[in-house]
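User: I'm new to structure prediction. If I give you an amino acid sequence, what do you actually give back? Let's try with this one:
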Amino acid sequence: MLFRIDSRKGKRVTAASPLARRAGVRTDMPMNEASSLLRRAVVEPNSNPNPNQGAKQQQQPQKQRDPNALEFYVSEHDPAADLTALEQLAQTLEKFSPVIGIEQDLRQIESRKKTGTNANPRIQPSSIMLDVTGLSHLFDGYDVLAAQVSQHCRRQDYHTRIAIANTIGLAWGASHFSRACQFDQPLIVNSDDEGIVGDLPVAALRIDATTHKTLDRLGIKTVGQLLAIDRGDLRSRLGSDLIRRMDQLSGRTEEPVIVSRQLPEFSENKVLQFPTSNRETIEVVIDRLLTRLCGELKSRQLGSLIWTVRLLPARTTQKASGIDFRVCLFQATANADHVMPLISMQLEQSLMARDKRELSVSEIVVEVSSCVLLVQQQRQLFDENPRLDRQTLAHLINRLSSRLGADNVVYPTFRSGAQPELSFEFRPLVDPYRKRRRTKTVSTSHVLGRPLRLLSPPIAVSVKRETVSDLEERAVVFRKPVQIAFDGGVNRSTQKIVRSWGPERIETGWWRGATVRRDYWSIVLEAGTQFWVFCDLKKGKWFVHGEF
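Assistant: Good question. You get back a string of structure tokens that encode the predicted 3D arrangement of the chain. For your 548 residues, that looks like this:
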């Protein structure tokens, strides 16, 4: 049994063996309660002495019982050791499938920047993915293959829950939550099996904790209940991530297995005869190794997005630790002149974080992963548009990201929602896992245009509406603004509104927290300036939100 230390809840159970689960231990249970259940499970078999025996004989089993000789092993959870053991087990499974991935490699990519309070607690790796497509004839069927994998893991003292399905999402959900899948009892499930798929809990979709909590409040517990709801309503209320997970479960959206251990595509290393800590010497060796790798990549018309450099210390150095860093690129390349300056900047930052006397490098390794085929495109004869020079643009983005940090060189993307300030988000440009496919331009059905500039935060103003006598038969709530006064800032003035369009009602849903209710107007002042203003219907105050 494993436990973790929570700063608020104390010691909590992280994992329990099948024997401990039969004793009543469950995940996230307080450690004190779990320990009492384990002690009771050990004492009960010896707590029924023969009544015909004497008191001295009755006490004999109690004296022989040694608390230190329990069958239960209790230890603190070490996630790093778990990941290492999982990687070692994955390497031994290569005889069953050439494509093997670890759950963390598949799911951490999407949430590596979301490590806040709403991070998914199930992001810790606990599963190994094997792509066994078309391999059934080699093992006389998938059931025999699953049985052999189970026996192989059991010989290495692992109790596994194995599920084979048409999709990764269904296999993961069935192995974690299906009652038909038990330890050391593999399950082969089909996406058409509505009984197993419908009974899976919504957590089997690998959704984030916020969406899971929202569905729980709505009373939606199973995937079957979720599939009965209109997809359009789910997308508008809970976002496109839930729809994507549902499509991955059913097979509408393809989800490949991301290989956990990158194949040694290209690697170069140099063992130094004499260990050194001189930066210039290290850069010269890296440059030579990099030139060899780039030559090999160019011969195969390949380019890499990720370049890894490892500086290994001398073995005789006590308490020595090497330096590992990666250089991620915006566009794949095999040009050493582009990569070497970025490596030099990363090396400089790594050496500044530690004392040079503590580093004595005896071996330097340069590796290449995430290789893609370089497509050569001929430019036009009279092409003078600098925007088409993608290599120069990628080189600029790479240098900015290395100098300023990848999180500071970003691009905007659309988000679902009507609230203007939350309709977009910024993502890093340099991200090897960023989607490279071009998406269609998002078309909106708004009659009123959106301003080119949004003010953050909106500026509070005073607005005078048309009087009741000018309304005729219109409702009071739709009275047009006729005058605006800027109370704050340098230019404090009152101006007349000559034209106005609106109102456009924007309300946010209950699933986004506090409800926002606004009426937006496009107004033109006497000076010809056009603003986008809104009235907060909850507070009754006016704000300028944008400028055309």
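You can read the tokens as a compact description of the fold. Here is one thing that stands out. Residues 152 and 290 are 41 Å apart (CA to CA).
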